[in-house]
Amino acid sequence: MTQSILTRQAAPADRLPDSQPLYRQLADQYRRAIGSGVLRPGDRMPSMRAFMQRHGVSLATATESYRVLERDALIDARPRAGYFVRVPPTAALPAASEPDLATLPGAAQFVGIHSVISSIVSTFQRYPDALNLGGATASPDLYPTDALQKAALRALRKRPTLLTAAGHDQGDPALRAIIARRALDAGIQIGADDIIMTHGGIEAVNLALRAVTQPGDTVAVESPCFFGLLQALESLGLRALEIPASPTTGLAIEALAFALHTHPDIKAVVVVPNLQNPLGSVMPDTHKARLVELCAQAGIPLIEDDPYRELADAAQPPRSLKAWDTDGTVIHCTSFNKVLAPGMRVGWINGGRWHPRIGMLKFAQSRHNEQLSQVVLAEFLETNAYERHLRRLRDRLRLQRERMAAAIATSFPDGTRFTPPRGGMFFWIELPRDMSSTVFFKAVLDEGIRVMPGTMFSNGGRFDHFIRLSSPSTDLDLADEAVRRLGRLAARMAAHPD
Amino acid sequence: MTQSILTRQAAPADRLPDSQPLYRQLADQYRRAIGSGVLRPGDRMPSMRAFMQRHGVSLATATESYRVLERDALIDARPRAGYFVRVPPTAALPAASEPDLATLPGAAQFVGIHSVISSIVSTFQRYPDALNLGGATASPDLYPTDALQKAALRALRKRPTLLTAAGHDQGDPALRAIIARRALDAGIQIGADDIIMTHGGIEAVNLALRAVTQPGDTVAVESPCFFGLLQALESLGLRALEIPASPTTGLAIEALAFALHTHPDIKAVVVVPNLQNPLGSVMPDTHKARLVELCAQAGIPLIEDDPYRELADAAQPPRSLKAWDTDGTVIHCTSFNKVLAPGMRVGWINGGRWHPRIGMLKFAQSRHNEQLSQVVLAEFLETNAYERHLRRLRDRLRLQRERMAAAIATSFPDGTRFTPPRGGMFFWIELPRDMSSTVFFKAVLDEGIRVMPGTMFSNGGRFDHFIRLSSPSTDLDLADEAVRRLGRLAARMAAHPD
């Protein structure tokens, strides 16, 4: 159907009403055709004259459409040959090292990450204008600002007491019903009552930890590990046992199996199965099945933190660990923060066997979530706008990642390694062995760029020669240029350590 | 000025534009005159004819205005004499017992309140249609639904990315600046940076407790104590030491001083100084000063939970404990939940000496609050609508309490005692000694009325012959009738225990 729009002579009256200018509508048609594979890398684009005739538009409109597509790195101009659908550069760098399973951490450690992170954050704060290549959300213009604003206006007009009437303890029932329906996509079969809305995914993970541990207990986590989880563990007085994770398949299941034998004091396992932060790995289904089985057999709660699932590059997003859960071993935590709206703090939890206790803890800790954002979300999820948004977001993130991979591959020094992530926005980059990311992140701040040093992602300092990069904005040229500057700086530092 | 509106001949053109119907605008003028004391109890209201002439309105409008005032118990019709400003009935019951300071609880107890509350809540859930005289907020129509809805619409139009852009870690800076200015009213001198926004007041109290205690520690609380605090203590693994509180002056400071000597393991004190829940007491300034000094000298953090302050009956609302704090001993927690909008989960905390640690815990636990409700609140607080709302809310609550006090005094059995609260919405009623509120609350549920049994307010079962009542709605006749039914039932049960 996209093809017919592109090939037949479209009269202006055929076009759908759209608030976008015409050149942008046309660029979007081609963007979709490229995204869906109707137009393939290397395909020749119509000539300007053919484009003008086909769509009945002026030269100015045609030029502007091509300019947008070129800016977004969807097409390339080849001198005297015309425009072609862009061939994504292949990353020329070797894949990141697989973890060395022979050097498991000896003992679970009380996390001391907060002081490390505080020091990094206060360094960041001295450079408020730095270009942020360290964030964990996409840029605001990749989220459906208009549609959510309209949903909020509708919700407020329809239900004027949203702000003044208290909500349901577990969260808005209509929203929970929609979420339960959508969870089938992740392979999760639950009802609305099996869901408790939380203040973002991080509250969900905190509640899960509080439900199944006591201060002093040991919790097995992935290594490298999302620093927010290390902070949560520290604030709850828990010890972290870091289990190696592979940049392609995530947590090393057999290393966990071994640790469960050698550390009988492990009281919970926390895993990000889909698009692990910072690795960008997606755990294969066989690993997911084995991990759930392992925890069930050991009688140890498996806390699944799954906020990135829908950002994975695939026709069908991967399933959650919870899909393999048969006896309530898995506590599933997620949120709409990364995929839909960083300004909304709407997460949810299914507590498995510990659901009632988690409900009690949530009530005692912060009562119900606000009504308004929940109703806005329900309004939005009821339409097909959410699916449309996700498709667009995934396409844009893929494009950003391809550009970024190319820039990294061509500008970082020999000895740099990375495994292309399976979706999302993170690049976990292994710098040459003798480079320190602690030195590097400060040096690049002086150049006006913020990156996350690897030291934030472990309590053991094992990732000091890693950095986490993420795409900052839809201004791909700006990101490109920033990454190239990072690469040049890394090359200088690698050539002259200290 | 109010008087001039009432006495001069007002031409319709003089009236301010108002979306309210005319009869209601006029009723509101008289309501304000009565609330402000321009018209005093017993004053004669104008005759219908005089009212029609004075305001240039029809008989229908005049009649309707008087009907509204009569319904709201602001005026009474005396047969053949006309209408008079109502004389509030004096409560005829003896004051509630002062606490017996000789029988201090012997040892701090691990709170086991959750199972008690769960059982009560699940009993409540079997009677979903019961008239709720057990709530902790005023009825929705006492909150400024329209104004908040409009503020939300304005905020969304002005800042369309409110839902999609992440907010500031500590909360919206503009809102915090306004709150800091307003805090001067409570005697609190802080800057915007000294404020962290939280998900309601209960998250603030939880964060305060987490910042200054370890599981197993003892926390001194008032007795009777808000059950939500007992639940929070239980969920954090803390022991509660219940210190007696007086229905007129709140926490017995000398009992606390004694307990600090005998229980060196007390790690924090939690107090609701203004309109204690459930007592409705307001701590005198001298007590506040002494309490802060006592805790400062003992080096023990004093957690102030102050969500009801602005509902106190007084020309000038009472000050917070924090006003007497000179060295950061007091952690001040409050929210807008009870006074402005039960649907919004917007609280804030000043952590005194522990402010940075509380900031870390808040970040690790739930990140920043949502932007939207904060910006709505800032919009609303910037106008004088908040002060207007508070005056109206206090007037209406006072009226409700007067009606309720009269109904209790005339219908509850001998041996019932209560001390009129100093504002807010709670009545803490001491039933005759041999009555059990556990039996009573179930019996009245069968009659379709929900009240809170005293057992929820202590871990020691010391308030089994108490109940907490609150005004359910602006339908004062309905509340009246419900209270009278409660009284009759109590009288029957007192006459025939078991």
TrEMBL record, chains A, B:
InterPro entries: Aminotransferase_I/II_large, HTH_trans_reg/aminotransferase, PyrdxlP-dep_Trfase, PyrdxlP-dep_Trfase_major, PyrdxlP-dep_Trfase_small, Tscrpt_reg_HTH_GntR, WH-like_DNA-bd_sf, WH_DNA-bd_sf
Keyword Cytoplasm: no
Sorted UniProt keywords: Aminotransferase, Coiled coil, DNA-binding, Pyridoxal phosphate, Transcription, Transcription regulation, Transferase
CDD domains, A to Z: AAT_like (cd00609), WHTH_GntR (cd07377)
One GO MF term attached to the UniProt entry: transaminase activity
Domain of life: Bacteria
Coiled coil regions, renumbered to chain: 383-410
Domain HTH gntR-type, chain residue ranges per copy: 20-88
Family: In the C-terminal section; belongs to the class-I pyridoxal-phosphate-dependent aminotransferase family.
Protein name as catalogued: Transcriptional regulator, GntR family with aminotransferase domain
Lineage per the UniProt record: Bacteria, Pseudomonadati, Pseudomonadota, Betaproteobacteria, Burkholderiales
